[in-house]
Write a structure and sequence with these properties.
alpha+beta, 31% strand, three-stranded mixed sheet, 9 helices
């Protein structure tokens, strides 16, 4: 390509996107624009693959972010000769390395076309939610309970779909194999794929009497309370992934739950890595002579010594009162001194200041 769009723009993600977000974005778009789909677009798919092969590799992504191109080989300008040929076919060898380097499972996209003799396990839908935590909870960590309405495994039949105690027979549709072979026509000719049996949902067994609670599906929509552990030191906008806590799938595995955390700002404190920073207003006389102040930290009241002659903007450290790091470790709290100057002076105070000026202070 003589001119290239920004890789992040191609995938529809921001420059701060995580690897998982980049993978999900590519997965979604690749399904849509794959050449064998009715919505397919060979040039668009080539562009998506080039962008993903770069952004899914840490080294290439760092080079791209710094220089607008990569120097590590693989995807790049002219790196994909891709689609075409005499019959307009698609050369998968052009893309194999790109997918493998990004840890991407090609079967996720091409499973509909290339069975390879293996079945893809059914998987429930992923769920994403947002929660808000206080600044203090983001520093120390917290436990939260959320109530979700989602597809879950039936408690009555434990996901089998059969009434408790009912007899279970071998599925006649797949002869107990739990999978069936299906032949589809594509640009590559007739391709045989292996799919989970729809009759028994891949289990190879069918109960004589179905479960009344889930109507034989093994799953149903219900409310479920889930406990979340908010890790100490989490930043606003970070995502927590709970594997297997998404929606259940009959005869398969549950999806994942993604929790995006929003942190409520605190007017007193700011994070600086594992440390906290706060401002403290100090009177001019206290700054000149020194004294002790009581300050409110996230742990409670602390005594802070203001040294004689402290300067405006100087940082005073209180050890171990910063962000929790686990195993009893904490960052520090830094107190930034803000010397408050009086707006009006009494006659006696003015006289004292004039004497200080005479002394060169």
């Amino acid at each position: 390509m003589s001119t290239k769009r920004d890789y992040y723009e191609v995938l529809g993600v921001t420059k701060s996107a995580t690897k998982e977000e980049i993978k999900k974005a590519f997965h979604k778009l690749a399904h849509k624009f794959h050449p064998d789909k009715s919505t397919g677009d060979a040039d668009k798919f080539k562009e998506l693959s080039e962008a993903y092969s770069t952004l899914s590799d840490d080294k290439k992504r760092a080079e791209y972010d710094s220089y607008g191109r990569t120097f590590s080989g693989g995807a790049g300008p002219g790196g994909f000769n891709g689609f075409g040929g005499q019959q307009g076919g698609f050369d998968f060898s052009q893309f194999q390395d790109a997918f493998n380097q990004g840890g991407f499972d090609m079967g996720d996209i091409f499973g509909d076309f290339f069975g390879g003799g293996a079945t893809r396990a059914r998987r429930g839908r992923d769920i994403s939610i947002d929660i808000e935590v206080s600044f203090k909870e983001s520093v120390f960590g917290a436990k939260r309970s959320v109530l979700l309405a989602k597809m879950g495994q039936c408690d009555t039949c434990n996901g089998s779909g059969g009434a408790p105690g009912t007899k279970v027979n071998t599925c006649k549709h797949c002869n107990g194999a739990g999978k069936v072979h299906e032949t589809n026509n594509s640009i590559f000719g007739s391709i045989t794929t292996v799919q989970p049996c729809r009759q028994c949902k891949g289990t190879g067994k069918i109960p004589e009497e179905r479960c009344d609670t889930c109507r034989g599906e093994g799953v149903y929509r219900k409310q479920e309370e889930i406990e979340l552990m908010i890790p100490a030191g989490i930043e606003g906008g970070e995502m927590i992934r709970l594997s297997g806590m998404g929606e259940a799938a009959a005869g398969g595995t549950a999806g994942d739950l993604y929790v995006k955390v929003h942190v409520t700002p605190d007017p007193r404190f700011k994070k600086d890595g594992v440390n906290l920073v706060m401002d403290l207003s100090v009177k001019l006389s206290d700054a000149l002579l020194g004294t002790d102040y009581k300050i409110e930290t996230l742990d409670g009241t602390e005594d802070l010594t203001i040294p004689q002659g402290v300067t405006h903007g100087e940082l005073l450290r209180i050890k171990g009162k910063g962000v929790a790091q686990g195993k009893g470790k904490r960052g520090d709290l830094f107190v930034r001194v803000k010397i408050t100057l009086p707006t009006k002076l009494s006659r006696s105070a003015r006289g004292l200041v004039e004497k200080l000026r005479e002394e060169g202070v």
